[in-house]
Amino acid sequence: MELYVFRHGQSIGNQQHLFSGWCQLELTENGIRQAEALRDRLNGLTFDCVYSSDLVRAIETANIVLPQMTVIQDTDLREVNVGILAGRKLTECQDEYGEMLEISRRTRDFTHFGGENSQALMDRAMSFLARVSQVKAERIAVFCHEGIIKGMLSAVMGILLDEHRFSHANCNYSVFTYSMEHGWRLLRWNV
To answer: Could you give the CA distance from residue 90 to residue 18 in angstroms, rounded to a whole number?
Structure first.
């Protein structure tokens, strides 16, 4: 099985430098163009099924890229939960929370703000990967967020990774493969 994991197009949160988290933020005009360009890049590539985060920016991207497909929404594919920071400007939060916020961002631990940490994100990624590995399909598309893609990478590697070293651009994708013999493996990153 091949799992193509796509990050959504540029969202209002990306554009305005917001902590997006679980906010329902739409794509920008640029994000729509990115999704259309991704659709063109995938010309001829077919998928047996499509999963998406239930957050609107991922769903919009999925519907633009694969308009003929039914999208299965899955809450495990949401972005990292940043708690009370969600929807707020990064600079505003830096002014209010200072070093506490910097430590949370560096360690990817937003539990102080009512969110989740890297382990919880990786657990959600592992849950999704376990379920999707049981699907009878050769190629699956997944539309989600940078944080959960990094969570999948951590789950596949079996360790919590320093996420700042691994960026994943809007409307790029990574490919994971699964077999009974080898389990999950990373084939391509941030293409």
So the answer is: 5
Active site residues: 8, 79
Q: What is the 3-state secondary structure (H, E, C) of the chain?
A: CEEEEEECCCEHHHHHCECCCCCCCCECHHHHHHHHHHHHHCCCCCCCEEEECCCHHHHHHHHHHCCCCCEEECHHHCCCCCHHHCCCEHHHHHHHHHHHHHHHHHHCECHHHCCCEHHHHHHHHHHHHHHHCCCCCCEEEEEECHHHHHHHHHHHHCCCCCHHHCCCCCCCEEEEEEECCCEEEEEECCC
d(CA 101, CA 103): 5
Q: Which of 82, 151, 154 is nearest to 112 (CA)?
A: 82
- What global pTM score does this model have? 0.96
Q: Which two tokens stand for residue 136?
A: 């009878």
Domains and CATH numbers, the chain: 2-81+117-188 (3.40.50.1240)
pLDDT in tens, the chain (191 residues): 999 999 999 999 999 999 999 999 999 999 999 999 999 999 889 999 999 999 999 999 999 999 999 999 999 999 999 999 999 999 999 999 999 999 999 888 999 999 999 999 999 999 999 999 999 999 999 999 999 999 999 999 888 776 567 889 999 999 999 999 999 999 999 99
